[in-house]
Amino acid sequence: MSLKLNKRVEKIRPYIPGKPEEVLRRELGIDRIIKLASNENPLGTSPKAIEALKKEITKSYFYPDDTYYSLKNKLSKHYNVPADWIILGSGSVELIKMAANLVLDEGKYAIVSKNSFLMYKKVVQEFAGDEYIIWVDTTEDYEYDLKGYEKALNSDKNISILFIANPNNPTGSYIPAKKLYNFIKNTPEEVLIILDEAYVEYADAEDYESGLQWIKEFPNLFLIRTLSKAYGLAGLRVGVGFAQKELIDILMKVRLPFNVSRLAAVAAEAAIDDKDFLELSFKTNKKGKEFLYRELTNIGFKVFPSQTNFLMFIPSVNPKILIKKLEKEGIILRPLDPFEIPEAIRITIGTMEQNKILIETLKKILKEF
Ligand SMILES: Cc1ncc(COP(=O)(O)O)c(C=O)c1O
After folding, report:
1. Domain made up of 47-273: CATH architecture
2. Is the minimum distance from the CB of 304 to ligand 1 under 6 angstroms?
3. pTM of the predicted protein model
4. Distance in Å, CA 69 to ligand 1 centroid
5. How far is the CA of 294 from the centre of ligand 1 (A)?
6. Residues 238, 244, 246, 251: what is their CA dihedral angle, to the nearest 10 degrees?
7. Domain range 18-44+276-366, its CATH number among 3.90.1150.10, 3.40.50.2300, 3.30.930.10, 3.40.50.150
8. Is the CB–ligand 1 distance for residue 209 below 6 Å?
9. CA-CA distance, 79 to 77, in Å (whole number)?
């Protein structure tokens, strides 16, 4: 390659998402595919959002309103946050990238937890370089280790950003509110804190709390949500970021114009209004999670508690072989070697029908080992 690539790019590996349904269908030539690999909503998209999409589709030739006035006002009321404390992204991944773009550079470090969402590593590689990542190990149970973060903050490195997913992907673990709040309070104001709450709508532990209202207190806190999970809009790409106006204004400098499509914006508005869909999504997930937790444990797998719409488990057999065998049966799960937990597998909670098929198929396959 004769291009004059910047040296950071060489170290970046393209993101490998969960295997798409279409790919396996092509590979196997079978119709029934159950994809439980990308933490999508198994109930699909809110009917209200679908209605809104149908109405808007004929306006697709128009650019969106780049101020996103209507959607931001809806979000402002819904979350009780001023509209100018909100920024939208093409999925929350774009917001993560914008934040990294603001503060990272060669020589500036980022704190990233091992066994967490892969995008954090990727954006640091892109804007600073691989060598500027300070990795913090997770605990024995693969939980975030805030003590490790504190230690990194107290080092002599020039740290500009840190990333926290709460609850975490792919482990499903969470950080209790008090602990996280105290950590944020003790973090120097010049360090940008990314608090990623992609799975907040599923979390119901007594000591879990969203950090949304904390943004009033901490000018360096950027809180990120997504409509890809509980709101069922993964295919449309809508992320929502919250921070004090001053930080939002700086983030706006690196935002691409029209970064949320017209269709995505109207669907997001309708989805936010669809309380029934959200409630059904939560209940279906909770029931499915309890079912899968029990069944997978009974099968003899080590299953980790989860505050999300997925479970991480360590199977009693080789995970790679197990995943391959399941794929042959049309079921897609997520291998966790990219997350550096090669011994484990992640499964998105499906509909009860999907969950039951998964368990039956697993039992059949395990006899072959
Ligand atoms: C922790 C976490 N953050 C962010 C995202 C990105 O979601 P999206 O870009 O679809 O909003 C995901 C997706 O899996 C995630 O697990």
Report:
1. 3-Layer(aba) Sandwich (3.40)
2. no
3. 0.96
4. 24
5. 26
6. -20
7. 3.90.1150.10
8. no
9. 6
